[in-house]
Amino acid sequence: MDMILEGLNEQQKDAVTSTSPVLQVLAPPGSGKTKTLTARVAYQIQHNGLKPWNIIVCTFTIKAAKEMKERIRGFIGQELQSKLVLGTFHSISRRYLSFYGQHIGIPKDFGIADTSDSNAIIKRLIKRHSFNIEPGKARSRISRRKATTDNERQSKGPMSVEVQEFEELFTRYEDTLKLSNLLDYDDLLLRCLELLTKHPDCASNIEAVLVDEFQDTNTVQYELMKSFACGGTGRGVKKPASITIVGDPDQSIYSFRSAEIENLNKMTRQYKDHSTIMLKENYRSAGNILKYSMQVIEQDTSRPSKTMQSTHHSGTLPVLRELDSSKQEAAWLVREIKRVKELSAGMLSHQDFAVLLRSASLSREIEAQLGASGVPYRMVGGFKFFDRKEVKIILDYMRVIAQPDHTDAVLRTVNEPPRKVGDATVKALVEESERRGWTLWNLITKVAKDEHKPTAKISNQAWTGLKTFYNIIFRGQQHLETMGPEEGALIPLIEFIIRNIQFDAYLRKESKDDETYQNRLENVEQLKVQAESISAEPVESDEEKLYEIDGVQQEVISGPRATLSKFLINVALATDAQLSADGQTNDVVTISTIHAAKGLEWPVVFIPSVYHGSIPHSRSDNDDEERRLLYVGMTRAQVFLYLSWPTKLAENRDEQNCVLSSFLKTDGLHKKFAHLGPSLDTDDVWKQTAVILRRECP
Questions:
Q1: Can you say which residues are annotated as belonging to the binding site for ATP?
Q2: Shared-domain flag, residues 438 and 547
Q3: Same domain, yes or no, for 492 and 374?
Q4: Do the Cβ atoms of 692 and 283 come closer than 8 Å?
Q5: pLDDT value at residue 149
Q6: d(Cα 398, Cα 495) in Å, to the nearest integer?
Q7: pLDDT over 70 (residue 486)
Q8: How far is Cα 101 from Cα 94, in angstroms, rounded to an integer?
Q9: Residues annotated in the binding site, as ranges?
Q10: Number of domains forming the structure of the chain
Q11: pLDDT for 254
Q12: Which residues belong to any copy of the UvrD-like helicase ATP-binding domain (predicted)?
């Protein structure tokens, strides 16, 4: 049998070998969608003769992209795999803009405004112009606006004062990004779509487009998929590329990110020659977990009917436990973790347990009980490595050296470590730079070189601080330019920054004790390790290149500056890369929101607080999506599934009665659950567990 098809079931084989020009693969949880999609990519290359550099594979997380690369590498080898255009929508868009952005006026050395940059710009603009808008809501609103097409944004009558104010904020936000030579995350997609619309030949080589987690695409991503597939067809250069999407409407839970569940129906209408294949076998969960999860999702009668079958034994009944309070609920949950782990006789460790929450705010009691019981845990979405203060300071200096027009990076470093450039001075400089239409760095340069006297009075100490800051950045730029490409430019640059800003003394002063100081030093060393790995790679590695198309000019930067630019872009895009303090994966219980847990699995899953107001959430107006959210949470479990709820909540010393979620009361579903944890003292339970987890039975 063909190695690519080995181990696939009939539906998976049909999906891998399909010759349909437009293929929809509907893949419920645990049905082997990644295995199927990666096998289809390999099959297109080995059997259909497609060149890997003519294939685009879009994912939604860096983790998923890495997993796909590893699997595809196993089929076709490193050399061919590295030539695929594979990554997240944002990283692929960034590659196209890096090579072809000059055709739509994007400078080749553009930077990326990460979330903290965007938030800082918005807060500054709101304060500067006294806008009556909450910064967090403004950021979400800007992102939603950019996630829609021009047609969807057509005005429907006169604008209210509030809308006019938002429009002014939006315009100023865009102007600030442009002046700083930055694109935010949404711009990467929008400007790539603009590029492909105006210059479709940039993608005229593409023969196949494959999209994972299609139910999570927004309107712009859907249009990007179409544009990649149609590149160059308007001039008769080629026939459209084939399109393969893998998704599951039942797992559409990201409407707050503008994900559009209607995209699947839109695709069905627009591509009349499409084929649909349903993957029906579940390889993840015990039979009862799948059965009860399906009884939740099937309450939505508007969804297409599906048949799912577990390949495993029924297993124990899922548990629905009622407790008197959230404190008692948390205490029971921790006791059950300890009981199951102990009775597993070493088969399960702490990392096999997950607590999945509708809202992160529900974690307080659970964290307290875990801590009191000595059970180690981690909060997904806690402090990310690149957000740690000591790491971020160095990164910001690197940003200013690479992109001095990055105003927010300048603002974060001009007085960090402190050099007597106070808030009043900075505020005056920002206001003057905005009035003159200069970047903040441009103004600081002129002041430091005595070429311009600022409007506001600046103290001698502040002037000295500005000059010191300017000299560090200017010398850093010179230091970078004088290095040969073989020297691994980033490590010496980091050491230059540490030395010239007297970072060691600063860290000692900022640390409450020696242990904190040592931890911060270790984080700086970890940053060097990551920078070194980037420096060791050629700037134009096979995985970065795009196929050169006749008549379409590519533009790239090279040398140490290109290495620095690549590193900073990777940092900005690494939004889901999280490291513990020592960079290792620890044996700890995971606490996560259900949203953040999508695509993951654990042997044992707890979903607490399944009461009305939590799920469905009191602020949600979409019960269908809330139901899908519970379904996604339940289908993360492989062997044991626990749901629980408190009958009372203590709010500001007042007790509030709780009602069980309607999703679990429908058709008396709650009566079918077990109401106590399963008996675990029989060999059969652990034999079945060993089979599902593919582990040795102790």
A1: 27-34
A2: yes
A3: no
A4: no
A5: 63
A6: 11
A7: no
A8: 9
A9: 27-34
A10: 4
A11: 74
A12: 6-286
